[in-house]
Amino acid sequence: MASSKRALITGVSEGGMGDALAVELMDRYGYMMPILDSDLQKIKLNFDVNVFGMIAVTQAFFPMLRISRGILVNQCSIAGLMASYQPFINSYQASKSAAVKFSGALRVELRPFGVKVVTLITGAVDTPLWQNTEGARVGIPANSRYLPIKDRVEAMMTGQSNPAGLTPAREWAKGVVADLLKTNPPIHIRRGYLSITMWIVNWLMPWWMMDWLFTQSSGTGTLQKLL
Ligand SMILES: NC(=O)c1ccc[n+]([C@@H]2O[C@H](COP(=O)([O-])OP(=O)(O)OC[C@H]3O[C@@H](n4cnc5c(N)ncnc54)[C@H](OP(=O)(O)O)[C@@H]3O)[C@@H](O)[C@H]2O)c1
């Protein structure tokens, strides 16, 4: 059986040394990397946090939610939409797609028990998400097949090639709370920069155009010419 090491760190206020130690020791999720360069275990961690964690929490808290006839609110993302298939952040997006599907079917499964399920299709919000991802810390490996377009790939892995604009986290939270407190909360809450735009793109943009856009922005078109 594989052994694991544990550490107890106290005094982890944000910005302090305890916090820095915890961040360094923890296997943080948010793994952005080209699939060919990816470590399978780290991809699994994206799914552990974004999908299996959500399932485990749902199962654990269902009895309480049933008694209170409460609302289960799942944090998903525009990254989970069909049209969000930006290269090099693939496993993160795939885990968010799984979360959107899980949340949708759960809405129907829990309805008989008086429990509502709301899916947050969150757009870009100003948090340390991108700084915390492994892609931002290490970049692509020295033997990556994508070295000729390293700058473009790493810009995608670190969110630098995303359209500029972020909704402040408090503003996002205010909107979400206002939606949730309605007598009939919407089944999807679209808050955060680009959340509405991506919804429209998802319905209207032809796939050939999405492929073209992602090929241009990721540098894979340039790589194809070089090979
Ligand atoms: N920021 C955006 O633009 C955006 C857009 C759409 C959706 N989202 C989603 O919103 C959620 C929160 O992200 P955020 O933007 O607030 O970024 P964040 O500040 O980096 O928060 C990420 C959260 O994940 C937790 N986490 C990291 N690794 C973990 C692990 N291995 N096990 C358990 N928990 C772990 C962190 O916990 P600790 O703080 O305790 O380490 C932290 O609370 C995520 O699901 C993200 O995908 C964000």
Automatic annotation (TrEMBL):
One GO cellular component term noted in the UniProt record for this chain: endoplasmic reticulum
Parts of the chain that traverse the membrane: 192-210
Keywords, ordered alphabetically: Membrane, Oxidoreductase, Transmembrane, Transmembrane helix
Gene Ontology MF, one: triacylglycerol lipase activity
Superkingdom of the source species: Eukaryota
Record-level GO BP terms: phosphatidic acid biosynthetic process; triglyceride catabolic process
InterPro entries per UniProt: NAD(P)-bd_dom_sf, SDR_fam
One Pfam family hit: adh_short
Similarity section: Belongs to the short-chain dehydrogenases/reductases (SDR) family.
Protein name: Uncharacterized protein
Source species: Acrodontium crateriforme
Taxonomic lineage of the native organism: Eukaryota, Fungi, Dikarya, Ascomycota, Pezizomycotina
